[in-house]
Amino acid sequence: MEIPRSLQERMESALVSLIDYSKSRKPALVVSHYDADGLTAAAILMNILKQLGIPFHVKILTQLDENRASLILKNYHNYHFVVFLDMGSSELPVIRSYAKGKTVLIIDHHKPSKSKVTDEEIIEVNPRRFGIDGDREISSSGLTYLLARQLDSNNVRLAPLAIVGALGDLQDKGDKGRLLGLNLQIAREGIEHGFIREEISLRVFGLRSRPLVECLAKTFDPYIPGLSGNKMACYKFLKNIGIEPEDNGVLRMFSSLSRDEVRLLVTNLVKYMLEAGLSSREAEKIVGYVYLLLREDPQTSLYDAREYSALLNACGRMGKVSIGLALCLGDRNEALKEAIKIWEEYRAKLAHYLQLVARGDIVEEYKELYVIRGDIVGLEERISGAIASITTTILKSAKPILVFALSEKEGYVKVSMRIPKEVEKKIDVGHILSETSKIVGGSGGGHKVAGGANIPIEKLNEFVKMLRDRLSEEII
Ligand SMILES: [Mn+2]
Q1: How remote is the CA of residue 270 from the centroid of ligand 1, in Å?
Q2: I want to staple 85 with a disulfide (CB 3.0 to 4.6 A). Which of 32, 115, 312, 410 is the partner?
């Protein structure tokens, strides 16, 4: 594997600091993110700490801001080694100010803070500091994996977790959904050692573990309007295109299809998606690279790394991070059963809210944007981001989308905003949300194409009006 020298050297400092600390026999604190990348990174690090004999405490957060970073470092002041995973780079100044007397390691791939630190203050492993694309080439799970590999070559068995994390962070941005850069190198290492197989296949959910009708109904990426979330419609779709969904009263599996039937299915799916208004890029996503984890049971959702990451994602979104971690650490009994249940609940929730959106029940359309009033129907904050992202494909909109949800903060509503490709270059969502939410007494921010905010509930209409005014100026 070819790791750039500068990154390699930073990894070595990280490893040396861990080995040094292990001699103290004191515990370390691990702080990580609740998404699939954060959970897999935490699990890989837990493996490293165990191998070094360092006891540890793990804390999983939905996000890290200045306030939370300072709270954690104060509350856990008796931990002298703290690792931030999948977060921390943007909060360097506050972490540094509380880091005195501690060793702090940050493994993150998000945009780092402008301030720099020396290795003596904080060891920051962030690919962006070394000119590596942290959006597409490596995520926190991959970085933590590289560290584990450096410690012990047997840790190549953890490569599947690295890949699950990268896919969870949507880093499969190569041709036909292939991994790129260091991620691809990690996948290849896993392939060489018999842990992973890479192949091009139909990318619907549960292809190897569930009846075809169910696979189609459970596919949300890409979202197929009319089919996603609707088993009956999927049944009829198969019949219409000349594929018998059942055999002797038993629903058929994909593996029972003949070659001709597979071809029929793929061409008709793509055709259907195009007719439903999806872009050809979206529609073509239905066929692409999949990463199979050969040590997992092919009958389970853990066999396909994307499904594995979807399970973890659901655990995080439904507030069940310990189940997700247990899964990553190898529990294939209770944790797996529980994770599948959580995932079913999560899907049912998504399907329910998306149906309300598709029917137009909670959609307000303005000249400048769409407003989805999820708050009225009880949409929870943790899943509002997912609803916002999928909604951009349902509404086929060339307009920005605003989703309101219940906030975990009393008296507030949560806002998620997404913009479609067409206006991507013209607006900066994070910037707009940060400014407008402040004016109404809330707070917010995010990236260029996606962001979120919390605003006082009584300011909702004023906030929408303000955004409309701003957007009409900026888009036109
Ligand atoms: Mn990440």
Answers
A1: 30
A2: 32
d(CA 151, CA 161): 17
State in Å: Cα 312 to ligand 1 middle: 13
pLDDT of 119 higher than 80: no
CA of residue 63 to ligand 1 center, whole Å: 11
Q: Are strands 370-373 and 196-202 parallel, antiparallel or unpaired?
A: unpaired
Question: Structural domains in the chain?
Answer: 5-172 (3.90.1640.30), 199-333 (no CATH), 360-475 (3.10.310.40)
Q: How far is CA 212 from the centre of its chain?
A: 25
Pairwise CA distance, residues 204 & 222, whole Å: 9
- Which residues have CB under 8 Å from 386's CB, separation 6+? 317, 350
Rounded distance from Cα 62 to ligand 1 centre (Å): 12
Distance 84 CA to ligand 1 centre (A): 12
- For residues 13, 17, 19, 23, the Cα torsion angle rounded to the nearest 10 degrees is 160
Distance of CA 17 to the CA centre of its chain: 29
| Distance (Å) from CA 30 to ligand 1 centroid | 15
Residue 473 Cα, ligand 1 centroid: separation in angstroms? 34
| CB 160, CB 293: distance < 8 Å | yes
Interval between CA 133 and ligand 1 midpoint (Å):
13
What is the β-pairing status of strands 401-406 and 370-373?
A: parallel
Q: Which helix (H) or strand (E) holds 365?
A: strand 363-365
User: What confidence score (pLDDT) does residue 382 get?
Assistant: 85
Sheet holding 56-61, edge to edge: 56-61, 28-33, 81-85, 103-107, 122-125
| pTM beyond cutoff 0.85 | yes
Give distance in angstroms: CA of 155 to centre of ligand 1: 21
112 Cα–ligand 1 center, Å: 13
pLDDT in tens, 188-225: 999 999 999 999 999 988 888 889 999 999 888 788 88
Lowest mean pLDDT among 68-77, 286-295, 307-316: 68-77
Q: How far is the CA of 140 from the centre of ligand 1 (A)?
A: 5
Report residue 390 CA to chain centroid gap. 13
Q: How far is the CA of 283 from the centre of ligand 1 (A)?
A: 26
Question: What is the Å distance from ligand 1's center to 364 Cα?
Answer: 33
> 412 near 454, Cβ under 8 Å?
yes
DSSP 398: S
Distance (Å) from CA 235 to ligand 1 centroid: 37
Give the long-range contacts of residues 237-240, CB within 8 A, separation 24 or more.
237/268, 237/272, 238/212, 238/213, 238/265
Helix axes 140-151, 159-168, angle to 10 degrees: 170
